[in-house]
Every structure is written in structure tokens, then in C-alpha cells.
Request: fold
Amino acid sequence: MARDVVTVAGALAQRPHRGGHAWVFLQYLLGFGELGYDVHFVDVLPVASDPSGVSDLAAVMNRAGLADRWTVLAGEQVYGAPRSVALERIRNSLFLLNVMGYLDDPELLAAATRRVFLDIDPGFGQMWDALGLADVFAGHDAYVTVGARIGTPGNVVPTGERTWIPTLPPVALSHWPVTSTPARSITSVCSWRGPFGPIEYDGHLYGLRVHEFRRFLELPARTGAQFELALDIDPADAADRDRLEASGFRLVEPRTVAGDPWRYRDYVSSSLAELCVAKNLYVDTAGGWFSDRSACYLAAGRPVVAQHTGAAVPAGEGLLTFRTPDEAVAAVADLRARPAAHARAARELAEAYLSARVVLPALVEAVT
Reply:
């Protein structure tokens, strides 16, 4: 078999009914598919975990036209394509793209001719590694990150003497058409804290989205704009939820509006724009993180009002960045004053910088 296969490994069955999370993997699978590669997705479920997420994964893959292009391993139990098929596809892959190093199966890793670590949470893994808390990088041949400034002079994220290859989150643009859906609200689909805790590194405590978002609670009152968040927030954060609602943010249940990739796409496409408040770690390290969610908004022709992280996509029309509450207010005012211009520019940015047909060939060249 010619080596025209790319295998993508990541965690999807563990997080069912999260449409945005599913798109992280679909963009690569569909994007590589559009470039002429055969693709396969490999996931691993811990033996004692709930297997119900496998049915959600299967439904997503079936609808995306990838019905026979996935395998989930759960100990001796295998779902989707047999282990032998996954093993053969990995052997014949140009490379294995291991998202956050999730695949740790020794036999499958050994079968890959080239193992590429894809970092989508820049700063977390590098700091865990430097502090001796986790070794997620071992056994890989190349290291890719959506943190465009990691490894550049003066950046505080530890590199572990690895060469980090910058990339941007790709979007399979044919699956993200621009629609004329009437839009009024500035939205986001996000988690209040996420799966990781704060990290203390080199005398600095790097926090989460909650630690940044509290700085911008006055945005609805100061701008007069409508803001809506499909927010995953724990009941333990009830006080924060109350403050958000009292400040004018409308909160909706993420599973209702974005419980699968297509509802997520509809929700993004029916928004006026995205408000992207970043995790404090991304802000304080200025590591150049760019959101896969923001990439989807731009692809849908929806502008993004994003907190500054040093990202590689140029700010201006379509992508308005801010550091302070005053700058965020000004960005929203500009967006509302020129919505059509920003909407056109948003799609143009996606086509120039984020299209899978732009991002993935550069990635292949860099890692092979």
C-alpha cells in the first residue's frame, strides 16, 4: 500500500455530545481527506470508563462520511474497525498525528513510521513536563503546536529542548459555508474552567478562562450588545453563573445548542460574532495560541472579538483583538458599526490562513 494514509489519534469517545470538541478531529480527518489522503481515527477508552460515548462517536463519524475510518480500543474490547485494521493503517501512514499524546498503546505507536505530537493546549503540557508532573511527549519524532510563539526568543513556555513547529487549527471550508442567517448575539461555546487546573511555574500562577472572564463582566452593560454563552459551568461555580447573568450575559445549555458537530455549526453560523476570552495561561504566556473555535467562526463568515495571545492570524477587520476591558468595548463598537465589512473579512482570513488546504500541506512538509 502506498503511504498516502494519515492516522489521527485523540480523545472523542470520552467527551460525547460536545460538537466543538468533535470538530477538532473532524477538521483534520475531512481536511486530509479533501487533499487525497486516506484517513483513520484511533481513540482509547480506559477499561473501567463508560462506553456510551462510543455510540456518539459512531454517529458523528457516520454522518461525516467516515463510517469505516475509526477504531476505539477499550482493553480487549474493540469498537469500529478491528484493531488489526487500525494497526495496518498506522503502518501505512505517512505519519501518526497524536493529539496531545493521547494514544499511548505501545504496539500502535511502534507501528507508526513517524509519530507527530500535536499540542492544542500550548503551555500546559510543556509546564507539566518541566515540573515533572507528566511525560506526554515521550516517543514522538516531531512536535507541533498551535502556540505560534512557543520556542521564540523571550517566550516563557519551556520547550524541553524540543523544536516546536507552529501551525494553525485547520478548517475544512467546504463543510463551513457562509450563510445569510439573521444574527443579533455575540456568542461563544466554551467551558468556564476546562479539564485542567491552574499551574504554578517559575513563581507565577497561570490560571484558566474563569480568571480572565471575570475582568470583562461589564461588556454587556458598557456596549449595549447582546451576549450569549453556551457555557459549560460546574454547579460549584454558581456564584460566577449568577454574576454572569446579572451582568447581562445570557447562558444556554451547550448540549442543547451544540451537542453534535452540526448543531454546533448552526449555532456558530447564527451568531453575529464570537467573543473569545482566553485561558489566563494563554494570555500571560503570550504563547500565540489560536482557538479552533475562533477558526470555525471565521470560516462561517462570523467575526471574532478575541483576547490578545500573540496569535499568528493578523488582527484587523474580521478579527479584533483586545487586552483590556476598554479595548474590548471599542472592538465591539467597531464590530457593530461595520458588521458587513467584518463578516467579509472573517471568511477571507479563514481562506488565507486557516483553510485545511493551506494549513495541512504546510504541516505535512514540516513533519516529514
